[in-house]
Amino acid sequence: MKLDRLSRAPNLAIIGSSSPVGKELKDLIQESNLPLGKVKLLDTEGYDGLLQEFAGQIEVTQIVSPAALEDTDIAFFACGPEIMNSYAASGVAFPAVSIDLTQTGRPGTIFLKGLSNSSLVRMVRDSGYFINPHPAVIVLANILDALNRKFKVASSTVTILEPASERGAAAIEELQEQTVRLLNFQSVGSKQFKGQIAFNLLPETGAAVVTEGLVRRQLAAILKDSMPVPALMTIQAPVFHSEAFSMFVRFAETPIAPTSEDIRKCLMESKASLVVNVDPEDSPSPVSVIGSDAIHVGRIAGDPHDPSLFSFWMTADNLRIAAANALGIAESIVLAAATT
Questions:
Q1: Contact 320, 292 (CB under 8 A)
Q2: What is the mean pLDDT of the chain?
Q3: Residues 234 and 282 both lie in one domain
Q4: CA 204, 296, 163: angle at the middle one, nearest 5?
């Protein structure tokens, strides 16, 4: 690792630059003030030679390989799980600073900007493998941390409505194809999902169990012992992008229970990137939040029979918030290198 170059204008590589989250990451890096050296866009053989625009220049997509990653200061792994698992199984060393967005469960330093201890990025001399949290973790950790600091969370239960984009480009294409075929009164087939996902909800039990376990572990690592980890249920929704959340939170009993307005004010004053809708008729939807880096909070309702229990509706662009946090990790690393 060249700390001097890392602090000034690091060489970057995006592995999976044509993936849904890779495209978002590429766009955010271009919009950011992150100083850049050389940038390599890498992918599998099927994308070799693909022309992609970056910072006003046309870049040729290269095949991911050890040679292609030479002289890389920060590598973003935004590829699919199969590519990451193949790379890891090859035994080839990862670049000195690697930021993993693949959610394959590999060990590393999980980092959520704004909540994780900034000292973690100062460890780049010894260990530079960082795990970008699952988008659901980014949402839930920020919301629950803000609530817990003010009111003390006793327990929480969350239903996560997952979009097709969390399963990659092939899942997006399958949802699109099924939708077109059904609108044309044709039968549908399924490869990525266990059945018809268009105009439907699927339990996708196998995938859900894996996701729920990953989210629980990551939340426990970030929130530590500050509150209980939420009970989770993941459902596959027929949407292309953006996660939605139905959450119930029970607060610790106090002489004066908080009101919906108290909770709304708490979230508005949070340092996290939150948009809190005041008008319940103007609640966010998965479509309305596409392209936003923020977590959008809609309806907040108290239980009429239990003053300590509240329900929440939240949405967030899963691709955008994941890419934004990964960029935040890189920015924190560059700043730490500059001040070392």
A1: yes
A2: 91
A3: yes
A4: 20
**pLDDT score recorded for residue 60:** 77
CA atoms of 288 and 298, how far apart (whole Å): 12
Helix (H) or strand (E) holding 300: strand 295-303
Whole-number Å distance between alpha carbons of 45 and 53: 19
CB 157 within 8 Å of CB 229: no
Strands (E), 51-151: 51-54, 57-60, 62-63, 74-77, 97-100, 109-110, 129-131
**What letter would DSSP give residue 321?**
H
Contact in structure between 116 and 219 (CB atoms under 8 Å): no
pLDDT in tens, 307-320: 999 999 999 999 99
Residue 75: phi and psi, rounded to 5, are -115, 125
Indicate if 69 and 148 belong to the same structural domain. no
The position carrying tokens 């939170």 is: 249
Of 92, 28, 250, the residue nearest 156 (C-alpha): 250
Q: Which domain holds residue 206?
A: 136-317
Q: Find the largest Cα–Cα distance for the chain.
A: 66
Query: Helix, strand, or coil here: 278?
Result: coil
Could you report the per-residue pLDDT of 103-142, keeping only the tens digit for each? 998 899 999 998 988 777 766 554 589 999 999 999 999 9
Please tell me the predicted confidence (pLDDT) of residue 126. 47
Domain holding 7: CATH number? 3.40.50.720
- The residue type at 132: N
Looking at the structure, tell me whether residues 109 and 97 fall in a common domain.
yes
CA gap 13, 32 in Å, rounded = 16
User: Could you tell me which residues are beta bridge partners of residue 315?
Assistant: 244, 296
Query: Domain check: are 224 and 179 in the same one?
Result: yes
